[in-house]
């Protein structure tokens, strides 16, 4: 495996200007000591300093989607391997103009920087924003966004056109609502949904979500293999990126081509009267038409143990919304999966990257029932 030293992948094209290691370290030092520099920019230059130092590892933090955030040490040489794999699969070329609009304190933003170092990309760092549309005022060859960012862009009048002007887009950090591929399918650029996590240095698999090549199945990157583990959870073997097999809690289905698709998470399963319900199945159906934030989870019930509940983040939910939910939910494969009620709350708890903390949200409203509003379904 390739080793990293002070001279390896230490120059960067930043906003069109080629900077060597000394120039980058000088810029980083000035930025970190300037009280007028915004936090996001300090985080950017802070990572540049850590990438260019003598340590063989970088400390990163998990997003905390399924638990408390954790600190991990990642070998830089493995980040290099990951960057090269992505560059090969997406056919990224030296000088490609690349928009960075993700937070650099998490692995997705860090890896965009590493790809720029390793592949010679022309990196354009911008302040992370829920709606990056204002940054799409010029041509880009490549960018990475979250599903929420893409959703916000598409809400704008000219959003689809602007997003379609980016040659290659990867969308990651969470599931893609069923409505998104429908809105993206006519765009002529290339858009992929990625699968991965902090421990795998972002994505280890891709699926195309627009054009005639669109697919529900993720194809692992070269050198990555997947297999079923306990209860059909996904196990990832990526020797160049991970020192050992990664055991996930994602329930997956596999095909004979080595591909997979995610059916839900083992730790999200609801046991309602003996029926083990995968809430992601319900959410996928609802996401085709429902635009407000929601999720499905269990709620304590004397008879069933847990009842299936649809949680909605909207203080103005009304009767017509419940009627819409009932109409869409008629598509469920099993009537027993039908949620018993809609629980409307003012806000969901989220990670700093915007992902919903399901367990924390449900636990809070269990302890504060006066802050909930219920409607039967």
Q: What kind of sheet is the major sheet? A: 9 strands, mixed
> What is the helix tally?
10
Strand order of the largest sheet: 2-1-6-5-7-8-9-10-11
Give the oligomeric state of the chains in this entry, treating copies of one chain as homo and distinct chains as hetero: single chain
What features would you describe in this structure?
This protein is α/β, with parallel strands linked by helices. The longest helix has 15 residues. Helices cover about 30% and strands about 30% of the residues. The protein is built from ten helices and 21 strands. The chain is globular, with a radius of gyration of 22 Å. The strands form five sheets. Strands 2-1-6-5-7-8-9-10-11 form a nine-stranded mixed sheet. It has a four-stranded antiparallel sheet with strand order 12-13-14-15. The chain has two domains: about 220 residues, Rossmann fold (3-Layer(aba) Sandwich), CATH 3.40.50.12780; about 110 residues, ANL, C-terminal domain (GMP Synthetase, Chain A, domain 3, 2-Layer Sandwich), CATH 3.30.300. Helix 1 runs antiparallel to helix 2 and helix 3 packs across helix 4.
A few lines on this structure:
The chain is of the alpha/beta class and 377 residues long. The chain has 10 helices and 21 strands. The chain has 2 domains: 12-224 and 253-263, ANL, N-terminal domain (Rossmann fold); 269-376, GMP Synthetase, Chain A, domain 3 (2-Layer Sandwich), CATH 3.30.300.
């Amino acid at each position: 495996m390739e080793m990293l030293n002070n001279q390896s992948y230490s120059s960067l094209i930043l906003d069109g200007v080629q900077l060597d290691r000394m120039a980058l370290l000088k810029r980083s030092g000035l930025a970190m000591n300037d009280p007028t520099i915004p936090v996001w920019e300090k985080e950017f230059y802070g990572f540049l300093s850590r990438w260019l130092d003598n340590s063989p590892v970088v400390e990163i933090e998990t997003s905390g989607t399924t638990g408390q955030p954790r600190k991990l040490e990642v070998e830089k040489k493995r980040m290099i391997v990951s960057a090269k794999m992505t560059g090969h699969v997406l056919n990224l070329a030296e000088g490609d103009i690349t928009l960075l609009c993700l937070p650099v304190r998490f692995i997705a933003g860090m890896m965009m920087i590493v790809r720029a170092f390793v592949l010679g990309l022309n990196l354009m760092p911008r302040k992370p924003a829920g709606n990056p549309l204002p940054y799409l005022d010029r041509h880009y060859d490549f960018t990475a966004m979250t599903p929420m960012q893409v959703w916000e862009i598409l809400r704008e009048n000219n959003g689809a056109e602007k997003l379609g002007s980016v040659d290659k887009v990867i969308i990651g950090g969470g599931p893609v609502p069923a409505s998104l591929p429908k809105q993206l399918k006519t765009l002529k650029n290339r858009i992929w949904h990625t699968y991965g996590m902090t421990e795998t240095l972002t994505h280890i698999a891709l699926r195309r979500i627009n054009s005639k090549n669109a697919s529900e199945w993720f194809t692992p990157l070269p050198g990555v293999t997947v297999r079923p583990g306990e209860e059909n959870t996904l196990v990832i073997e990526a020797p160049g990126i991970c020192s050992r097999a990664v055991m996930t809690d994602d329930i997956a289905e596999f095909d004979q081509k080595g591909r997979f698709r995610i059916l839900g998470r083992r730790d999200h399963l609801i046991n309602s009267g003996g029926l083990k319900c995968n809430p992601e199945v319900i959410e996928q159906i609802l996401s085709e038409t429902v635009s407000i934030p929601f999720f499905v989870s269990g709620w304590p019930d004397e008879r069933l143990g847990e009842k299936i509940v649809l949680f909605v983040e909207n203080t103005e939910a009304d009767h017509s919304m419940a009627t819409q939910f009932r109409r869409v939910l008629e598509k469920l494969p099993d009537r027993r999966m039908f949620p018993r009620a809609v629980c409307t709350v003012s806000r969901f708890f989220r990670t700093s990257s915007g992902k919903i903390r399901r367990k924390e949200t449900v636990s809070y409203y269990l302890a504060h029932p006066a802050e909930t509003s219920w409607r039967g379904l």
